[in-house]
Design a protein that fits this description.
The structure is a single chain. This protein is an alpha/beta fold. It folds into two domains: about 70 residues, Alpha-Beta Plaits (2-Layer Sandwich), CATH 3.30.70.340; about 300 residues, Aminopeptidase (3-Layer(aba) Sandwich). The protein contains 13 helices and twelve strands. Keywords: Carboxypeptidase, Disulfide bond, Hydrolase, Metal-binding, Metalloprotease, Protease, Signal, Zinc. InterPro entries: M14A-like_propep (IPR036990), M14A_act_pep (IPR003146), Peptidase_M14 (IPR000834). Belongs to the peptidase M14 family. This is Zinc carboxypeptidase A 1. One of its GO terms (biological process) is proteolysis.
Length: about 425
């Protein structure tokens, strides 16, 4: 009874907090079947609508969140180009409330125990976990790789056997986009698996003996914190744009086709690329880590949600990279290992053709500027059933299958680049 009282008390507190209210907001799905419809959606995306999945190719579903007051207006616009729609979520506000209740209930049931890898955590909790791990595990050191506009440190864990300063490096970053909570949950799970199973699990032991694993569990701390305190669906960072709108998309801010297709010059857009490449602390922090380990980085992986995709460069153009055959081979092996875990189906290929054009992305930069052959972007579960509000009960299977895919990737890299 005491636990239930605590749960309902915290739910009431959350309900009274000053947060963006998404009651009655819908997510609709449209499928462009003509070039006119696709072009229309691409132009619509420039007008600060919240696209949960972006227009890419004919026949590819596009999800758009819309408020009750603008719903009919949007429907009329879609009708003008004969675009029909289906309603994926009739009330996003209720879905967010359900997510909050699930988080709080699990916290109450897990109170007083060790860090819970089957729940979502605030940024201060994640920082504390990484720092504690650095003090309790001889494999881990923590560092702050950058400081955000609001003054938060971007924390990174280095997981290493310490056997050589010239070992290969594998770099993983999560939550470049703030609302994608399943991504940092997956990174935290990976950290726990690597540190608790080294020396007992032959596969993990071999992979850590081969390479140092550098993991940034939350690449966009300001935006991530904002999703907890104010707006669950915030995507960008929180830097001011000189007008009424805030935030730059850090994953459009790298010097790789900067300002090209799939990035916006509109400061109110969710894909705003910023005034110049590497203007954001978030993109600059990742750049600095890669450059500091120049010549050692053999893999750079950016983890996102949602859509169930494993992708290689390029995002800025449909032209395939020179090393695409090898990239594609390793993607296929990785996806097969992921799918073998629970049967989850992933598509894989280059970003531009698999999901959409997205200029200024991190993995285009790591491949083109720094020569990191195995540069990949992942979109984890699901394909739209829950979207960004993946229930806590699905964290463990999502993280487990993803890590299995990444281990398969790492084994292929170790065999190719011993």
């Amino acid at each position: 009874m005491k636990v239930l009282f605590l749960v309902f008390a915290i739910v009431a507190t959350l309900a009274n907090a000053t947060k963006v209210d998404y009651t009655g907001h819908k997510v609709i799905r449209v499928v462009p079947k003509t070039e006119v419809q696709l072009s229309f959606l691409l132009k619509l995306q420039e007008q600060a609508y919240d696209f949960w999945s972006s227009p890419s190719t004919l026949g590819a579903p596009v999800d758009i969140r819309i408020s009750p007051s603008r719903y009919q207006f949007l429907v009329n616009l879609l009708n003008s180009v004969s675009l029909s729609h289906t309603i994926r979520f009739s009330d996003i506000g209720k879905q967010i409330e359900d997510e909050e209740r699930a988080i709080i209930l699990r916290r109450a049931m897990h109170s007083g125990r060790a860090f819970d890898f089957e729940n979502y955590h605030t940024y201060p909790e994640i920082e504390a976990y990484v720092n504690e791990l650095a003090t309790t595990s001889s494999l881990v050191s923590s560092s702050v790789i950058g400081t955000t506009y609001e003054g938060r440190g971007i924390i990174m864990a280095t997981i290493s056997t310490g056997s050589s300063a010239t070992k290969p490096v594998m770099y993983f970053e999560c939550a470049m986009h703030a609302r994608e909570w399943a991504a940092p949950a997956t990174c935290l799970f990976m950290m726990n698996e690597l540190t608790t199973k080294y020396g007992t699990d032959a596969e993990i032991t071999a992979l850590l003996d081969y390479a140092d694993w550098l993991i940034t569990p939350v690449s966009n701390p300001d935006g991530y914190d904002y999703t907890w305190t104010t707006d669950r669906l915030w995507r960008k960072n929180r830097s001011p744009n000189g007008g009424l709108c805030y935030g730059t998309d850090p994953n459009r801010n790298f010097d790789a086709g900067f300002g090209g297709p799939g990035a916006s010059a509109n400061g109110c857009s969710d894909t705003f690329h910023g005034p110049y490449a590497f203007s954001t602390e978030e993109a600059s922090a990742m750049r600095d880590v890669i450059i500091a380990n120049k010549g050692r980085v053999v893999a750079a992986v950016s983890i996102h949600t949602y859509s169930q995709l494993w992708m290689s460069p390029y995002g800025s153009q449909s032209t395939l990279p020179a090393d695409y055959t090898e990239m594609y081979r390793v993607m296929g092996i990785s996806v097969n290992a992921l799918t073998a875990t629970y049967g989850t189906v992933f598509q894989y290929g280059n970003i531009a053709d698999t999901i959409y054009l997205a200029s200024g992305g991190s993995i285009d930069w790591t491949y083109d500027a720094e020569g990191v052959l195995y540069s990949y972007a992942l979109e984890l579960r699901d394909t739209g059933l829950y979207g960004f509000e993946l229930p806590p009960r699905l964290i463990l299977p999502t993280a487990t299958e993803t890590f299995n895919g990444l281990k398969a990737m790492a084994k292929e890299i170790a065999a190719k680049l011993p």
